[in-house]
Amino acid sequence: MGGRTPIEPQRVDAPLTSSATFLVLSVKLEDDAAINTVRSTLASVEGLSKNVSIRDLSASFACTVGIGSDAWDRVTRQPRPAELHPFKEFHGKKHTAISTPGDLLFHIRAQRRDLCFEFERQLLDSLGDAVSVVDETVGFRYFDVRDLLGFVDGTANPVGPAVTDSIVVTEQDDPASAGGSYVVVQKYVHDLTAWRNLSTEQQEKVIGRTKLENVELDDAPGGQQQSHKSLATIEDDQGEEHDILRDNMPFGSPGSKEFGTYFIGYSRKLWVTEKMLCRMFTLDRDDVLCTFSDSIG
Ligand code: HEM
User: Fold this and answer.
1) Which residues does the UniProt record annotate as the domain Dyp-type peroxidase N-terminal (predicted)?
2) Is residue 292 part of a domain?
3) Does residue 4 belong to any structural domain of this protein?
4) How far apart are CA 128 and CA 191, in angstroms?
5) How many domains does the chain have?
6) Residues 179-192: tens digit of each pLDDT
7) pLDDT digits (tens, 9 = 90+) for 240-262
8) Which domain holds residue 194?
9) Greater pLDDT, 95 or 223
10) Which of 41, 208, 255, 291 could make an S-S bridge to 126, C-beta 3.0–4.6 Å?
11) pTM
12) Is 5 part of a structural domain of the chain?
């Protein structure tokens, strides 16, 4: 908490909120005037956040900004973070983690939808035609922090001092980027009819936790089947586990038959999130394909 008024710029570890907007924008990178507009707007994000959050300090308003690899040099004129690069696609037999355009990400969070709405409105007013909107997704909190698949999502997130350890780049990692964090987002749309055709037991095996009580399950012996939670558990060569911080949100609307999960993961080391993705999409249990580690990070 930041003293008298709990407003802090760029709180990657902001508390879970009931509402969030994920806004992805493309910047007119060849246009100097557009770059100047983007630079001055980014410099004013702290001020914009204050404009909105002061109206209800109990609503835990927070906004974090991500700057994409292609836009980094033009927009920041700062040294590049060591691991920053365009999103790597992962091609599995069945599914592909696709790379889509986007130069700026705004992760806007609050307990009140109107605060997210108002911040986004003021932000886009300021950016004007320097940017175009690639994707705008409004997420909501669903029952006991469940995703639309019906499972409690976020349980294994780091807590306490482990949060900073997992998400903040240190001087030792990369002096020029110390204090920053890597963020990856993905938008998943669920085939809920197919999911509901699975028994609860089958669904629990996919996720790796029981549905009602959220108890962690062991994987089937012999590596026959690996659950989501196991594929997403990353250990390095020394056996040390590396966490990321997730603040996934359900999105969609029954009227348009759209049911989704917006994945957002913050990490101190980008390779950790990439390795999770690689293992999930390729089902590479033995890290034959997914060989990311600190040494090559
Ligand atoms: C449709 C998208 C996704 C859904 C619905 C989903 C849902 C879940 C659920 C229900 C859990 C178990 C409870 C918990 O610990 O949070 C979980 C765990 C986890 N997920 Fe996901 N997830 C999704 C995508 C991803 C992606 C893309 C990543 C990483 C790139 C990821 C990383 C993790 C991690 C690290 C855990 C904790 C594993 C552990 O137990 O240590 N998830 N997820």
Assistant:
1) 13-141
2) no
3) no
4) 36
5) 1
6) 999 999 999 999 99
7) 999 999 999 999 999 999 999 99
8) 19-282
9) 95
10) 41
11) 0.96
12) no
